[in-house]
Amino acid sequence: MLCPFCRESESKVVDSRGSQEFVIRRRRECLACGRRFTTYEKMEESPLKVVKKDDSRVPFDREKIRAGIETACYKRPISPDQIEELINKVELEVYEAFDREVPSRFIGEKVCEGLRQLDQVAFVRFASVYRSFQDVDDFVEELQLLRSRSHS
Ligand SMILES: [Zn+2]
Known about the structure:
By secondary structure, this protein is an alpha+beta fold. It has two domains: about 1-45, no CATH class; about 50-150, no CATH class. The protein has five helices and six strands; from the N terminus they run βββββααβααα. It has helices at about 60-70, 80-95, 105-120, 120-135, 135-150; strands at about 10-20, 25-30, 35-40, 50, 55-60, 100-105. The chain has a three-stranded antiparallel beta sheet, with helices on one face. Strands 5-4-6 form a three-stranded mixed beta sheet. The structure holds zinc ion (ZN). Zinc ion binds near residues 5 and 6.
């Protein structure tokens, strides 16, 4: 994201707002000249990395969030539309708050918040596994284990 004033490529996000679906309006501040400018960025154009608890980085993947939410909502009265809405909400919050890297903890907390409003059982399932693992990938696996155990 080049500064329109001095062409510096390093800037930081100082404010952002989802203006329409999948387009993020960001106020940026140039790290060289300190001037501020506005950008409109499609989410696909600004790929985010997720920082896991062991400090490794993986690409942000909404399908992983979906897997976690769907597993937590298994056999609960929650429609696919509600799940989609929650994923979109979490994704938007992530892109608004972070520029390049998002801690996996942030994603987990946002999913917890959303599930708490949707369904208490799904929330408790997700939160109990999440709190001990702190990582979306890990808790998807653990939730799937819990699910298979409860059926045997
Ligand atoms: Zn500049």
